[in-house]
UniProtKB/TrEMBL annotation:
Family: Belongs to the DedA family.
Signal peptide stretch: none
Bilayer-spanning residue ranges: 18-39, 114-134, 140-161
Designated name of the protein: Membrane protein DedA with SNARE-associated domain
Domain of life: Bacteria
Region named Disordered: 178-235
Organism: Trueperella bonasi
Membrane topology per record: Multi-pass membrane protein
Record-annotated VTT domain positions: 18-131
Keywords assigned: Cell membrane, Membrane, Transmembrane, Transmembrane helix
Keyword Glycoprotein set for record: no
Amino acid sequence: MANVIDPIMDFINNGPVVFVYLFLFFGAFTRAQTTYWIGRYMGKFIMTRGRPDGGWRLRLYKRIHAPSTEHAIEVLQRRGWPLIPLSFLTVGFQTLVQLSAGLIRMRWPRYTPAMIPGALAWALIYTTIGWAVWSAAIGAVAGSPIVVVGAIALLVVFFVWRARRGNRAVIAAISKDDGAGDSTGSQSEDMSGGETTKPGDIEEAGEAVTLGGDSGRDSDETHPQVAIDAIRDAR
């Protein structure tokens, strides 16, 4: 094993910076993707078959139901996808977040763009200052009350801005729908000679549209909360 590790470490320490950076990025990308897909596999396995009988699946099952993993799932649910790239700046919690993203069945097209910046940052840290220096810097910053208060203030401003932006988008969508509904209602009234539509007809039409939409949905996609509830119930 040392015959394999030693050349790799020598390449990381003495190789060209660009190639070392690409090598580390590829390693971080591959590890994160593997962890994510293991989470998705285990989430589906637990939902369909429950507790494994033994082997590596049982070991993963116990890891999934550990308090640390459940905490990571809860934090990821509250904070959303921004937690994924930020987790690459930590040790230990990084793996739990990638696993949790798979367990809650976060869609791959959404997970991967969020993961790539984290992998880039992780590779940059290892290529330049190294993880030991990074950890020492974080420890020094965390020991300063002014910096901690400033970081908290920035986080509060970010989440307030994000919430207001979401509210504006919802209000704009509702206004647009109301305008479209008024226009459609006027056109329908003109075409039908003034006849009005009964509320029961609208409900029946809504049910038909919903059933038609569900039939085209990918059967492999499961609502995150359904997956989480199934994993917790399988204890």
